[in-house]
Amino acid sequence: MAKSHRRRRAARSMGKHSVKDLSSSNRDPPLAMLEEDEGSQFDWLSNLPDDMLLNIVERLDTADATRTSILSKRWKQIPNMLSKILIMVGPTDSDQDRSDDDVARATATMLAATQSLLEHRSTSASAYPIHHLCMHFFLGDESIRIGRISANTIATHKVGVAEFKILTEKEGKRCSADDRLAYGKKLNSLINDSPNAFSCLTRLKLENLTLGESDFPKIFRLCKRLEFLHLENCDMGFQSLLEVEHQRLRELEIFRCDFERVDLNWLPELTTLTISSFTSLHDPLSCGYVPLLHTVSIRNSALSWQKMLKLSEFLGKATVSNLTLGFEKEKIWVTPEDPRELSQVFSKLRLMNLAAISKECDLTWTMFVLHGAPSLEELCIRVCDCFGVWDKDEREKFGYSEERKDVGAKWEAYDFKHCNLAVLRIFGFQSKDKFFNYAKAVIKAAVNLKDIYLHEKPACKVGCSRRSKKYPRSTMEKNLVRSSLSMHTHPLLRLHFSL
């Protein structure tokens, strides 16, 4: 027992010597060491090297990381050392209700946080760079002050990624045409007051704005470092044309915008394009010089007066490898085409996702994708077991089609073979003839098909939340599916059931 006690005393003694050695060899960093009084416990965390301490602290959100400055005098330097600063007004869902009181409180808190974290830092001689500066704020009188502080910070520090998400006081569903016009003028005032802040942005998110014809080109010229742009409920007037030319832009997202067409004239670095809900009478997109564009997602709840689109025409010279087309449970808005017409667009296509197909639609028309994309490796079909907008008066009011939703999607069956398709996924699968016939058609054409995944999980979470009565769950039901697909004649093909 005495021997064990002596060992513990020796270990404590060795620990004290190691602390003294560390103290004498690492005095330079401002947070490196903590003087300890006789008998006090040693603060191991504060004595970590600055880079290790920051690595730990920056795993917290910015507000919690800032609160650590009250722990001791030495920790007061933490806010000036943070390399990741995210200051946000709170939940910023575009559909969430925003009351005047909520906006006023959030703006006051945002301004106070900006002044506390950035204003002092802008005037200090701190040499610590900012790797990521993210600001989410409401567009209004106080946004001018936020823009100026951000500009000063960017001017005095090396900022890697700078992001602005600029919100409007009213959410999209409450914004009138006059509101969007007023917000557009406020944005122009902010840009004119703080051009240096915008010139260093790498990410920009805008919503609920009507801008003049020259405003978007001005933004593209000013934001020379821009790599990501998100536009929601924005326009330049009714049936306006958005022309995009930018040296560094890589990702472009356009949601519920009222542009007649988006022309991607010259975007040498663009890799990802997302368009959701367009009101165009004609082709909503034109692709010019986009040599690196590989991922495209286009979703639209098509109205009765919108034309059927040809992918070969509006995708132009783009050669995408990952393509998603979403139909939002309404009419199919693409026209099946001859494979010779699709050869340019689909020559490098590897993954195709056809989403939110109404349950009343047949699936045979989707075979045109397989026929026109010889390099396709995975085909994903998502069927919705719900009606979407079903009230007759509402459908008429908003202009939804009264015809069958796949009336324009006619495909003439061809006897062809596909050598590269390896995976077929069907979401919203049911034990019905249209699913069996479709799966058998794909099996017949795709001679090297390896896996078929049949998912009960529907394509939309809200309207299709109920469990399908037609999905095979029991062993007997699954065996009937295997028999219907003649799986015994395809020994190398695997069939998977997934709830």
UniProtKB/TrEMBL annotation:
Tree of life domain: Eukaryota
Record-annotated membrane-spanning stretches: none
InterPro entries to which the protein is assigned, alphabetical: F-box-like_dom_sf, F-box_dom, F-box_plant, LRR_At1g61320_AtMIF1, LRR_dom_sf
Region (Disordered): 1-32
Biased composition (Basic residues): 1-17
Signal peptide boundaries: none
Pfam family, one: F-box
Coiled-coil spans in chain: none
All residue ranges annotated as the F-box domain in the record: 42-89
Protein name, as recorded: F-box domain-containing protein
Organism: Lolium multiflorum
